Amino acid sequence: MKIKSILVSQPAPADKSPYHELAEKHHLKIDFRPFIHVESVPAREIRKERINILDHSAVIFTSKTAINHFFRITEEMRVSVPDSMKYFCVTESVAYYLQKYIVYRKRKIFHGDKSFQNLLDIILKNGKEKFLVPLSDAHNDEIPKLLNKHRIKYTKATLYKTVCSDLSDLKDVFYDILVFFSPTGIRSLLYNFPDFKQNNTKIATFGPTTAQAAKKEGLRIDIQAPNPKAPSMVMALDHYIQIFNKNN
Length: 248
Fold this sequence. Notes:
Blueprint: E1 5-8, H1 18-26, E2 29-32, E3 36-40, H2 43-48, E4 58-61, H3 64-76, E5 86-89, H4 92-97, E6 108-111, H5 116-125, E7 131-136, H6 142-149, E8 154-164, E9 177-180, H7 183-192, E10 202-206, H8 208-216, E11 221-225, H9 233-246
Parallel strand pairs: 1-2, 1-9, 4-5, 4-7, 5-6, 7-8, 9-10, 10-11
Antiparallel strand pairs: 3-8
Helix pairs in contact: 1-9, 7-8
């Protein structure tokens, strides 16, 4: 049987998304459904950890979500962030997002280029700062390990949690391909459906940690991105479906 349906475990993208082109090209039904969502860690829990924002002279932001929760916490704790605070952002788009909360041109803002390794070079040039690193409870350990390796003074602050969404309404719904972008997405699938049997369902994963999580749970990975021929998930899906549907 040909592949006719895909469920992507993320929020629906904008109208001009490559997924819409993929659906038209292969006559697919593509649905979007977040398997995880973010919940705030309240200020009282931050206080229990004895994290004092004003003890830090710089903040490292790895995502727009981290920015939202940093400024949420400062408001809840009634902390006035000084103009001298420095902001180090993993990408330019994350840096520009700061405009939602501060006057961008009047602050000391630095950004990397797609990878934390690139941002680390900038951080090392400002090694005398004491950094605050807002993260999710399900964060990648790469950042703390690199900061420890280079003896950077920092405090890790868990300001938000990534939790499994309720997917009970999908219990009797079948898709030919399930697409995952994080280990927590895999965890949510099995949390919601502990008796899940893969059978003929194809699993697509993005990134090595997601693939590792899927394999650990005994899932068969049929589509993996990025790869040398397909740097994006859409390209990987396109390549796989083209060959699969031709042979079935």
